[in-house]
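Let's study my pick:
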Amino acid sequence: MATKKTTPLTKAGIRKISSEKPGVYDIKNQQGDSEYVGMAKKGRMQGRVEEHLPTSAKDPVKNGSKVKITNTKTKEAALKKEKQLIKSKQPPQNKKGK
């Protein structure tokens, strides 16, 4: 069964995220709408989410305020969940370049 957790999109919030399992992250704006959905392999969740901090010059996600983490048992399950979320939520940053 997948576990879910929502945390602020801040350095302190990211430190609370477990990287022990693969999973999907859903970056949300103040209104709760998805801005970007991505996946991370085991051991990479904190690093992947940190790449999307609003203060990062290289990241286009400037309106993120919180991140919802869904851990999965396998990388394949995370990929499947990521595709489902992108299709259903259609985050604006996932549409660019596609």
Summary: The chain has a mean pLDDT of 88. The helical segments are 11-15, 45-50, 75-89, 92-95. The first helix runs from residue 11 to 15. Residues 3-92 form a domain with the GIY-YIG endonuclease fold (CATH 3.40.1440.10).
